Amino acid sequence: MGSRSDWPTLREAAETLTRLSVPHEARVVSAHRTPDRLYAYASGAAARGLKVIIAGAGGAAHLPGMAASMTTLPVLGVPVESHTLKGLDSLLSIVQMPGGVPVGTLAIGRAGAINAALLAASILALSDPALAERLAAFRAAQTAAVPETVEDG
Ligand code: RP5
């Protein structure tokens, strides 16, 4: 994430990965305040064994795109809701990548963070049958938890 202030949003991704028993790490890496850290993190990610990067940032959210420019790992971008523009700035900063350097962009805020984790799990599950089973169980439990009427639950 681009700042510790992004953690309330990105924590949703971390918690979702924990629920699915997907090993992960959380780091603060700012495209603007810590560019050298960003370079080291993104360019070294594959060699460290990372498989997917979830990059969340707000405002002038250059973190996901810059990370994607330095790795061919899948990069999933989460637009953090900004106070001034409600995350529309973050969304547009992340989604409008030039052709050739992809960032899979999720929804603004909590839903985007959760879905980034689920999408990362789906990618990893392609080569991890046990994770695929856990993911299917997660979705089945989610479906079962939806009440059919407003009186239920
Ligand atoms: C972005 O600026 C961060 O991703 C964060 O969403 C936003 C504000 O950062 P702080 O000023 O709260 O550290 O780089």
Automatic annotation (TrEMBL):
Species this protein is from: Elioraea tepida
Domain annotation PurE: ranges: 1-146
Any one GO molecular function term: lyase activity
InterPro entries linked: PurE_ClassI, PurE_dom, PurE_prokaryotes
Source domain of life: Bacteria
PANTHER family membership: PHOSPHORIBOSYLAMINOIMIDAZOLE CARBOXYLASE (PTHR23046:SF2), PHOSPHORIBOSYLAMINOIMIDAZOLE CARBOXYLASE CATALYTIC SUBUNIT (PTHR23046)
Enzyme class: isomerase
Keywords carried by this UniProt record: Isomerase, Lyase, Purine biosynthesis
One family name in Pfam for this protein: AIRC
GO biological process per UniProt: 'de novo' IMP biosynthetic process
Primary role: Catalyzes the conversion of N5-carboxyaminoimidazole ribonucleotide (N5-CAIR) to 4-carboxy-5-aminoimidazole ribonucleotide (CAIR).
Gene coding for it: purE
Catalytic reaction list: 5-carboxyamino-1-(5-phospho-D-ribosyl)imidazole + H(+) = 5-amino-1-(5-phospho-D-ribosyl)imidazole-4-carboxylate
Family, per entry: Belongs to the AIR carboxylase family. Class I subfamily.
Binding site for substrate: S3, D6, R33
Lineage: Bacteria, Pseudomonadati, Pseudomonadota, Alphaproteobacteria, Acetobacterales
Pathway(s) this gene product operates in, as recorded in its UniProt entry: Purine metabolism; IMP biosynthesis via de novo pathway; 5-amino-1-(5-phospho-D-ribosyl)imidazole-4-carboxylate from 5-amino-1-(5-phospho-D-ribosyl)imidazole (N5-CAIR route): step 2/2
Stated name of the protein: N5-carboxyaminoimidazole ribonucleotide mutase
Protein EC: 5.4.99.18
